[in-house]
Amino acid sequence: MTIKSDSILNWSVRNNQSGRLRIYCKELGDSSFLHHHCVITLTRCHWLKGFRINKLNSNLLISFPIHRSQDIFILLDQALSLPIEELGRLSDTSCLGESQHRNSSVGPLTICRVSALGVLLLGEIFFTIPITLIFTIAILLTFPVLNKIWRNRFSLDKMLGDIQDVFFSGVLLSNGLPAEIILETFLSDTRTSFFNLSHSSSNASHEQKFVKDLGSIVHLQLSGSDKVIRELQDAIPGDNYLIENHTHVFIESVVVEGEIVAVTRLADGDWQPHLFHVGSIIKPGAFVVRGNAVLCVLKTFYNHSIYALTSPNDSKSIEELKEEYFDLNFSHKNISRVLKPLTISGGIFLYGLNFGPQALSLLKFNPLEEFIFSNSASNLTAIYLMRLHGVLLNNKNVLAKLSKVDHIVISRSCLDRSDGILTREHINPESFDTPKGYLIRLIAGLQDYLLQNDQIPIWSEQLKHVASPLEISHVILGDMKVDGWLITLSSGEKLQLFKQHQPPEKILKTHHFPLEVRRDNILLGYIELFSRVSESWTAVFEALNELNIDVHVVGSQGYSRMLELVKPLPMNLTNNLHGDYHADERLELVQRLQNDGKTVAYIGYVLEDLPAIIQSDISISIETDIDSIFLSGMTDVSIGPDVNWLPRLLLLSKRNQIANNFNFSFICGTSLLSAIAAATSLITPAAMILLSDIPLLIAEVFSIKAMNSHGVFENNDRKTRVFHPIPQTPSSSHLPTISS
Q1: pLDDT score recorded for residue 336
Q2: Residue 74 — φ and ψ, nearest 5°?
Q3: H-only helix segments in 152-304
Q4: According to the model, what pLDDT value does residue 590 have?
């Protein structure tokens, strides 16, 4: 964790123009937690024109209306500081994904050697350096390669490249060309540095490690006088542990003492509060919003189906299959195993016949290795280009995978969580003393009472903007289906809140059961609860259809209730909408779609998505609220709040794959031409060494051009966000909601 308090971080204004600011904050580039918090805070501001975060230089570019010049600094204080309750709530889980987004570094020894060789090469151009010194340095540079061959003597694949380099250096020395050895080592170390940076910047196959880390990072405080602390993965059935306000429950447990109010948003996407008393069973993913209790463990960590694929016995074969199927260099390595022995033996044979230039050209001919370096550099470029747009590629081969996607499975929780559960009140016409907006003020006050200044809403962010919510002094939490909640206002008035399963026909029971409000058994009215899919998702589904990608939606709710939510989306509602799908069913769906050799991407948010995320070929998360940081660190791709980047990324990956195919042909062709030119003495060995790297630079230009996102399903990111009113029904009132 980089941020340790709720104090405002040090940030400064680097550029101040009319309606535009450029802010520097060092922690913004170091901490994915702060980056996530900043994105969520700025996205929720309806008057903001747009913003962009550059994690490479820790800069924030922000555009705003001129008349908001005073408000913008208040907003920045909120965006660039972390409330201490968020840190406490996410202190365990937030650090799981932190390492996934940190920039890797090349070894200092490599950097020093590259710098020294570069200085030496420049010095040889302008000054006369003794030839003995050049020879000595050239000979010394071969010792690390010889040592590497000795260390890899039992691995033929790793030895072949180094053996080829040693023979190439030996032929150069025998021909009196030690400076060319220094030039080749300088260029080789530079290529290797980029290759290592690419591989360590974005590590594949980290989903299982992420969940395994969850078992070791999260700790349970066992009840009792000794107060033993136990890791989550070591908890056994029968262990009693304390659960406090603003914490998650990650293993199935039963309440044995006390009572708590929790939402199961991280488990199944349900935002509504539930009361858990003695005897109540709590599923993994529940988040305690109020109260303290003692829970008893019912299942061990790995006995849960959502964590089962991460057990050591089950995970290896799946991960090996994924790596083997999607390793871009898999076929190239097989070709290299045949090509390298031929070039080495042919070079030695030609040198024995005293054909020095021909031997050098053959020993230097290694187009496959050059393409692998070029592809790694392209991956590194793509990773950092996408990071500028708020898209994190946590898997170095993800672009190659995305270009082959046939099916995308989307968890329902990703579609409607941006706005949460929206509300609309229906006042009873016979309740003459109930003013308009009273029921909305009631539920807004109830949410404030339960949350106690926490940043995550129970029902929706919408209720945080209600003017003068009712002040509540006490709530008796009963079963909302039977006894209801007994609410006491600060004025002394008592109200009852029920969950109504059979509301009047004028109240649509679309996605959530409405709430019924009574005073002394007199009906005051109903609060309709509903969710909706943002307009951005409609455009995303249309774009995915244009790309001929089959889209599925899964959810734990019934088919009919999900149908009301996704009906506006252009998708196959008959075959591709799956209701009553929990962890096992979602995993089976992904496996079924993969049976025909198809590539499946999974977009998830809740714990029930974990098995399907691990099984899928590409895992994707979307950062739209504070809880989404939980999965954003373990998925192959993490997209910001702008979901339009999903089809853009898919199209860019296809263009990048076309560029890679062209680069392969281009590099192989230029390598062959330079080898022929060197063999016929048309170019010098130094020119041959340089010409082997020039195509890599040109190939990188092609890759950068392929990743240009302008015009790729582009929307107007700079347009001002507007209020979209909810259509009114008779005897109803509502609040405006914000969409971007």
Answers
A1: 67
A2: -65, -40
A3: 156-174, 178-201, 207-217, 265-268
A4: 93
Instruction: Write down the mean pLDDT value for the chain.
Output: 76
Q: Count of alpha carbons within 13 Å of 550, Cβ hemisphere only?
A: 12
Q: Per-residue pLDDT tens for 603-626?
A: 988 888 888 888 899 999 887 665
Which sign, positive or negative, has the C-alpha torsion 704, 709, 710, 712? Answer: positive
Residue 509: per-residue pLDDT = 55
Sheet holding 422-427, edge to edge: 472-477, 485-489, 494-499, 515-519, 522-530, 422-427, 732-734
Alpha-carbon gap, residue 178 to 172, rounded angstroms = 7
The 10s digit of each residue's pLDDT in 316-338 is 343 343 344 334 444 566 676 77
CA nearest 526: which of 731, 293, 276? 731
* CB-count burial class (<10 Å; 0-12, 13-18, 19+) for 516: buried
What CA–CA distance (Å, rounded) separates 376 from 204?
14
- What is the pLDDT at residue 194? 61
**pTM assigned to the model:** 0.70
Q: Who contacts 176 (Cβ-Cβ below 8 Å, separation ≥6)? A: none
- Closest by CA to 414, choosing from 296, 268, 288, 574, is 268
Regions of the chain with pLDDT less than 70: 1-9, 32-33, 44, 82-111, 156-158, 191-213, 225-226, 267-272, 308-334, 336, 417-420, 452-461, 501-512, 624-633, 709-740
Q: How far apart are CA 199 and CA 205, in angstroms?
A: 12
- 3-state SS class at 490: coil
The answer to whether 565 and 554 have CB atoms below 8 angstroms apart is no
d(CA 188, CA 737): 57
Phi and psi at 411, nearest 5°, equal: -70, 135
User: How large is the angle between the packed helices 645-679 and 356-364, nearest 10 degrees?
Assistant: 170
Sign (positive/negative) of CA torsion 599, 601, 607, 610?
positive
Q: Enter the tokens of residue 173.
A: 């020395």
* Helix-, strand-, coil-residue percentages of the chain, each rounded to 5: 50, 20, 35
CA 286 to chain centre: 22
